[in-house]
Write a structure and sequence with these properties.
Elements lengths: L5 H25 L3 H15 L2 E7 L5 H9 L16 E5 L4 E6 L2 H19 L6 H14 L15 E2 L3 H11 L10 E8 L10 E5 L8 H13 L2 E7 L6 H16 L11 E6 L9 H14 L7 E3 L2 H11 L6 H10 L7 H4 L2 H10 L1 H36 L2 H19 L2 H17 L5 H13 L6 H39 L36 H18 L1 H124 L5
Parallel strand pairs: 1-6, 1-7, 2-5, 7-8, 8-9
Antiparallel strand pairs: 2-6, 3-4, 3-5
Helix pairs in contact: 1-2, 1-14, 1-20, 3-10, 4-5, 13-14, 14-20, 15-20, 16-18, 16-20, 17-18, 17-20, 18-20, 19-20
Length: 685
């Protein structure tokens, strides 16, 4: 047993935990707990799916080549430019088949709407850089997608990769290009036999689009795969480890994982960093590459980062050579040079064997152990619940026939009474949420703030930009306040449900539904004010001339003329100042009116957003009530059934319940055995 590899121990531990779940499914069904049996079966299916290992990195870091090396043949397309355009899952299996999930018409239209908004934002910039220009071209290609796209002849359930036509079709779904179908694919799943030295029977390798691909659709697909992953292999190129793109990706990884409630974004027990294409670096420089990458990761706050060196290309070429497939002269020369003319040793000399061994001794093993430990905890809770249910059923059977029938009738009455509280949940839940959100629907504070800004900064050339920025900042603070209050409203609704059902929630954390996002194009029609000294001030000048002429005529002589001219000038200046002031005040009034109109336009969508939140929270409360009620209903129905059986043949029922207790005790033994195997996963150095 001491010669067991990490993969062998992982396979044994996973099999033992799955055996526990299989036994629990049988126990739940024999007890009549059909709903519980289905839940356990779903948990078992998720666990049997295997560990999800995402391969992440910039384009040209060798992700697809890395996955091809694990498969042992060239399946995924590889080129220098961004190639993989679709998240690709590779399941370890014998089939050599593929399946494609296409996006729906609605999903494509939503992507086109997002692309249109993003394109408008980029086009509004005065001088977009090269990266933004490239993104504009990608967004324009999204706009040209056909939402009614249909695979020619109808999408088959399975593509067979040993057929040229099927293989060509899958490549069009995977790779970017003028004839690519990738924008229409949500996900491509391959079932391929992978190298048993590197990948356990139950594992899923996920190849992702390049992190610095300029298409936002690429980036979003990578984030989704990262959120779903149990552990991550992060590739950088050995020639330029930790580039600006790598730093940007790591920063985004931290943000994305934290926003989705995962553990610390770059937690050490989820990431293995690999400097790929190490064959491009002189041998004496390779450890410096490792040290440099470690130092940069430590600067990001990753304690003791796990860093390995490898050449996925050499490993892939060695696997291709071993399979008897043809290599080009350049590929054969690279393989021979990298293995000292011993291509059979390519797997080891490439460093990929060390990478995967390190993965299963550290990151993969820790992720698997965490997954299996959680599964055993849930299995234990289910086993305890079933044992308690069987013991409760024993008590029911041991009661007299009259008492059993009376208990059954009382159970039915209690259930009916609890069911009648549904309207209470809807009414009180709506009242709680409405009261919580009432103060947030009033935008008068924003209106007053903007009017004050207009009054104080009317002459500023950047008034519109300033107002729009203030609106965004004000809305962001308001939405943060809404989120805080929603949590409190959720707790109150949870308490209402518990009171209506006379149940103790046990201090459960409030797990609210995902709230809608508030989207509003903040654009205020506020033209800059013109020069008040321009048009409209000629009339005061003529009035001043008339007054000056009259004074000069009355007094006569040079003194009269001078005095007339002076008084005329004063009149003209006073009138002009008054005209300018009136014009400014008129334009400020216009600006304030425009601000009020724009805030009024914001009021309706903001109120709609709050109503959406209210509707979802109330629906969440109702769903929570109905879910708890369904659990009670199942228990009461069983007791009613048992009461009727007790009236006929209580001894038969007791024998059956004793058998169920024996099976549950056996389940406890299986759990102990599985727990020991899981604990042994952590005993590798």
């Amino acid at each position: 047993m001491s010669d067991e590899s990490p993969l062998e121990r992982l396979t044994a531990a996973t099999g033992a935990v799955l055996a526990v779940y299989d036994h629990l499914v049988r126990c739940a069904r024999s007890n009549g707990q059909t709903h519980l049996a289905e839940e356990v079966q779903r948990d078992r299916s998720r666990l049997a799916g295997g560990l999800r290992i995402a391969v992440v990195g910039a384009f040209s870091s060798g992700k697809s080549t890395f996955v091809n090396a694990l498969i042992g043949r060239k399946v995924l397309p590889t080129r220098v430019e961004p190639t993989t355009a679709t998240v690709t899952e590779v399941h370890n299996g014998p089939a050599g088949t593929a399946s494609v999930r296409l996006k729906t018409e609605d999903e494509i239209r939503r992507e086109q709407e997002e692309a249109c908004k993003r394109r408008e934002a980029l086009e509004s910039q005065a001088d977009p850089d090269a990266r933004e220009e490239e993104e504009l071209r990608a967004l324009e290609s999204v706009a040209r997608l056909d939402p009614d796209f249909q695979y020619p002849g109808g999408l088959p359930a399975t593509f067979h990769l040993d057929r040229d036509a099927d293989r060509d079709a899958i490549e069009r779904f995977l790779a970017d290009g003028p004839d690519s179908w990738a924008p229409y694919a949500e996900r491509v799943t391959l079932e391929m036999p992978m190298d048993e030295r590197a990948v356990p029977a139950r594992a899923i390798i996920v190849d992702t689009p390049g992190s610095n691909s300029l298409s936002r659709l690429h980036r979003n697909a990578t984030w989704r795969a990262l959120i779903e992953a149990d552990c991550v292999i992060f590739l950088v190129t050995a020639r330029a480890p930790f580039s600006a793109h790598d730093r940007e990706l790591l920063s985004d990884v931290r943000r994305v994982r934290q926003e989705n409630g995962l553990k610390q974004g770059l937690q050490n027990d989820r990431f293995l960093f690999v400097a790929n294409a190490i064959d491009d670096v002189e041998e004496e420089e390779r450890e410096r590459v490792r040290d440099y990458l470690k130092a940069r990761l430590i600067e990001l706050g990753i304690e003791e980062p796990r860093v390995e060196l490898a050449s996925a290309l050499v490993a892939c070429l060695a696997q291709t050579w071993a399979a008897g497939e043809q290599l080009s002269k350049r590929e054969r020369r690279l393989l021979m040079d990298s293995t000292d003319d011993e291509p059979v040793r390519g797997w080891e000399t490439s460093g990929l064997a060390g990478v995967m061994d390190r993965l299963w001794r550290t990151v993969g093993r820790e992720a698997a152990q965490h997954l299996l430990d959680d599964a055993l905890v849930r299995a234990g809770q289910t086993c305890d619940f079933l044992t308690e249910e069987v013991n409760d059923q024993f008590k029911t059977v041991n009661e007299s026939e009259k008492e059993a029938r009376s208990a059954a009738e009382e159970a039915e009455r209690l259930l009916a009474r609890k069911r009648s509280h549904l309207k209470t949940i809807e009414r009180d839940g709506q009242a709680v949420v409405g009261q919580t959100l009432a103060e947030f629907g009033d935008l008068s504070e924003l209106r007053a703030l903007l009017e004050e800004i207009v009054s104080s900064h009317a002459r500023d050339r950047g008034l519109r930009t300033r107002v729009e920025a203030e609106v965004r900042y004000w809305l962001s603070r308001r939405l943060q306040d809404v989120e805080v209050q929603i949590q409190e409203a959720g707790r109150q609704i949870q308490d209402i449900v518990a009171r209506c059902l006379d149940m103790d929630e046990g201090g459960d954390a409030v797990s609210l539904p995902r709230l809608p996002e508030f989207t509003f194009d903040v654009r205020f029609d506020l033209p800059d004010l013109g020069d008040p000294d321009g048009d409209g001030v000629a009339a005061p000048a003529s009035i001043g001339a008339v007054v000056g002429g009259l004074i000069g005529g009355l007094l006569g002589g040079p003194v009269g003329a001078a005095l007339g001219a002076g008084l005329g000038g004063l009149v003209m200046g006073s009138a002009k100042a008054k005209a300018v002031k009136e014009r400014w005040e008129s334009q400020i009034v216009r600006q304030r009116k425009l601000v009020r109109q724009n805030v009024d336009e914001l009021q309706s969508p903001f109120n709609d957003y709050l109503r959406q939140i209210e509707s979802r929270l109330v629906r969440w409360g109702v769903d929570r009530f109905e879910g708890r009620l369904a659990d009670l209903h199942g228990r009461y129905e069983l007791r009613v059934k048992l009461a009727r059986e007790a009236a006929g043949d209580a001894e038969v029922v007791r024998q059956r319940l004793n058998q169920q207790l024996d099976e549950l005790a056996r389940c406890g033994g299986l759990r102990e055995d599985a727990q020991q195997k899981v604990e042994r996963l952590g005993q590798f150095p």
